[in-house]
Amino acid sequence: MSTYTSLLKTPGVARIIAAQLTARFPFGMLSLAFLLHIERVHHSYGAAGLVLGAMSIGQAIAGPMTSRLMGVLGMRTVLWTTLALCSAAVASIGLFVLPIPVTMGIAFFAGLSMPPIQPAVRTIYPKMVNSRQLTPLFSLDASAQEIIWIAGPVAITFVSTQIGTVEGILMSVAIMLLGGTWFISSPEVGRVRIPRSKRRFGSVLQRPPVLLATVVGFLLIGSCAAIEAGVVANFGNQGPEAGVVLAIWSLGSLVGGLAFGHIPIGPWATARRMLIVFVGVTISMFALATWWGLSLTLIIAGLGIAPALAVLFSIVSASVKFSDTAEAYGWVGTGQLIGAALGSALAGFLIDSQGPIGAFWAASAFALVGFIVPALAHRWHPDLRNRDSSPIPDTEPVPVQPS
């Protein structure tokens, strides 16, 4: 813990972590908010899954592009514009009862305009700490973001079930505007200038670690999205049990991130962490009868989530130039969002046909493949046990031959 205490004492680190967590807090609320709202209005988890999928696909398409635009137009310009557009789109879904195709279109636009907070802050971090502190900072960030998934589901479930689903969505919009304004106004966002990348768009995916992180992120978040839908369907939308179970699950991830964040990252690091997720998700299928039983089994799955994300962030950072970091994280985010879209949609249809356990079948399958892929690709996984995870400098010394 002394490592994390030292990090938080570094000027600006605690502030930027708090600001970006607040800005991203609605991300832990919107999925459940839309799920509960669309199911209440249209009486179909499948329809809700389609809406969530449309939003995630919009985010997936926009992620690398808005991230790269930050190097062209500047971070603040891109963040202010997307914050305004996304807030308006999300609010309209709550305020107006519309046919599912129209709602999907608005959700898609909301995804396209989602502020690229995560790529921005991942790009800022290497400029705030020294090289030895960067991997622990990624781990601390991945662990701290679980606060979003601990408090977010509880808050949105309580508001949506006890007050109303419209109020739940509007509360998410209010927090999005408040947190986004705080983050964008932070001095660190104004001080860091992302150089314009000299590589063509998408070429960063040619680096095996970036592609690996994108694929594994897709599978990990696909599993998480299916679990979220399955938990909500298992306990219904009339009480707080679903939110409590999801919060406990995220608490397991928080504990795992803090406990394992200091472990050196070797070629098998991602596979080991994904194995923990797979085991936890699989045994959860046998604990659906009670909220406490499901909570205990999901804690096991949660122990691998934040550590896995921290490894993915670190191997990307260590594998690309600083000018390419924002786009690289945008592609990783795209993989995660496509996973969320497919996970939510597949889980929704399986819930309608097979009941809540169908969502856990999907989650287990995602997690299993998420273990197999990094296990097979361990040769392309960076070994960071004897090096730091700082990005490759854009300006390197040019050797000169003596005359």
Automatic annotation (TrEMBL):
- List, alphabetically, the InterPro entries matched: MFS, MFS_trans_sf
- The record lists the organism as Leifsonia tongyongensis
Which molecular function terms from Gene Ontology are attached?
A: transmembrane transporter activity
Q: Which Pfam families match?
A: MFS_1
Q: Which keywords has UniProt assigned to this entry?
A: Membrane, Transmembrane, Transmembrane helix
Q: Give the highest taxon in the source lineage.
A: Bacteria
Q: What is this protein called?
A: MFS transporter
Where do the TM regions start and end?
12-38, 44-65, 77-100, 146-163, 169-189, 210-236, 242-263, 275-292, 298-316, 328-351, 357-377
